[in-house]
């Protein structure tokens, strides 16, 4: 995995913890990204261990090295994570808004990214 990919996964762990727990659908999305990013056994073990402890965007977000494309990718996946269990809680909405702010993505662009992710999550929920 690249350093950017690790950063993205770690940020998604913080998003998954937004409502106080990491549920199976959220963990499934993170597992899928570990596979998609080609995580080595060591990376996989490290990031799974990282995910066992409650994480927050304020304490655990390291985005300085992320490119603009990485930031968009992170936001899109974060939006999917917040919809992974079929509903987005108020806490998840708040953490997503905070992530948009921290990433420095323009409001209009962020709304489109989040809306697209929501549509994809709803389609996936219908198939499962």
Q: Architecture, according to CATH? A: Orthogonal Bundle
CATH topology-level name: TerB-like
| Cα-based radius of gyration, to the nearest Å | 13 Å
Q: Which word captures the global form?
A: globular
Main CATH class: Mainly Alpha
Number of strands: 0
Strand composition percent: under 5%
Tally of individual domains: 1
Total DSSP helices: 7
Overall pLDDT confidence = 90
- Going by helix content, strand content and strand pairing, the class is mainly alpha
Element-by-element helix/strand order? HHHHHHH
Largest sheet: none
Helix proportion: over 70%
Could you describe the 3D structure shown?
This protein has a single domain, classed as TerB-like (Orthogonal Bundle). It is mainly alpha-helical and 128 residues long. The chain is built from seven helices and no strands. The chain has helices at 3-16, 24-36, 41-50, 57-60, 68-82, 90-103, 107-127. Helices cover 71% and strands 0% of the residues. α1 (3-16) runs parallel beside α5 (68-82). The longest helix is centred in the last third of the chain and has 21 residues, at 107-127.
